[in-house]
Structure formats: structure tokens, C-alpha cells
Specification:
Length: 149
């Protein structure tokens, strides 16, 4: 069976990420949020869907992801989402839960203009996860991070 972008593990070449970190990417929809979790490249991400703005379910999914990846309860959680209609309230709510969050400018996310690419939430969550790990490993030009007022 041929692997597609939605089924193959994340890959970023020679980039390495720090151990004991949980990476979380959000694809924020009007009625549901798609969540992607991983601890590093070469690993199949854990993908989940929760109702939009359901912080209780979000917290439960973060806890479940820590267990799934066998991380300690105090493991650092780094997340990101594209700026949009939800504004910055989610950033503040995540900060209150101890999650380090980045709000990124969606126009700054790199795309291959020559390649035809399916537009789907699954691809977007995986792309955000890969870029989040690249950013965390020191590649600062991977996207533009917005200042949260």
C-alpha cells in the first residue's frame, strides 16, 4: 500500500527535537477542532477531533496524549494554531493550563506553489506539527509568530 501525506510518519531530514516534549497542532473549525499530537519526527501523529471551544475535552486529550507517548505529567507541551476567527482567547486559555502556545500567521506558512496539494484539515494538522517541531529545534524563519496582545 502506498503511503500518502496523511498516512506516513512526519519527516524533516536531519532536524532533531528535544526529548520529553509533546507537540500539539490545532486546526480550528467552526464546529470542531482537529488536534495533532507527536513527540518527534518519524513518528505517526496521534490525531483527534473535539468539539470547538470544549476546553474540558481538550485538557483530557492532552492528558491522554501524554499517557500514549509515555511522557511524564510535567512534560513540556508546545502548541500552535493559525490566527483566525477565534482570536487570542484560546492562547490565553492554553497558557492558564501550562501549555506554551504560538499563534502563527497563516499567510506565512510555506507551500510548494508548483505541487498540487489537496486542501484538507488532516494535511494541515500534519504540516503545522512538522513546522512546529522545526521552529522548536531552532529554525525561526519557518513561519511568522504573532504577538498576542
Amino acid at each position: 500500500m502506498q503511503q500518502t501525506a496523511a498516512t506516513r510518519p512526519l519527516d524533516a531530514g536531519d532536524v532533531s527535537v528535544p526529548a520529553s516534549r509533546l507537540y500539539l497542532a490545532f486546526e480550528l473549525g467552526n464546529t470542531e477542532w482537529r488536534l495533532g499530537f507527536t513527540t518527534g519526527f518519524g513518528q505517526q501523529p496521534r490525531e483527534r477531533v473535539v468539539a470547538a471551544r470544549d476546553l474540558k475535552s481538550l485538557k483530557a486529550e492532552i492528558t491522554a496524549a501524554r499517557k500514549r507517548f509515555q511522557l511524564p505529567e510535567d512534560a513540556r507541551v508546545l502548541s500552535c494554531y493559525e490566527a483566525g476567527r477565534d482570536g487570542f482567547w484560546l492562547h490565553r486559555a492554553l497558557a492558564l493550563q501550562g501549555v506554551e502556545n504560538l499563534v502563527v500567521d497563516s499567510a506565512s506558512i510555506e507551500v510548494n506553489r508548483r505541487a498540487r496539494r489537496a486542501k484538507s484539515d488532516r494535511l494541515d494538522v500534519r504540516k503545522l506539527l512538522t513546522m512546529l517541531m522545526r521552529y522548536d529545534s531552532g529554525e525561526r524563519r519557518v513561519w511568522s509568530v504573532l504577538h498576542v496582545p
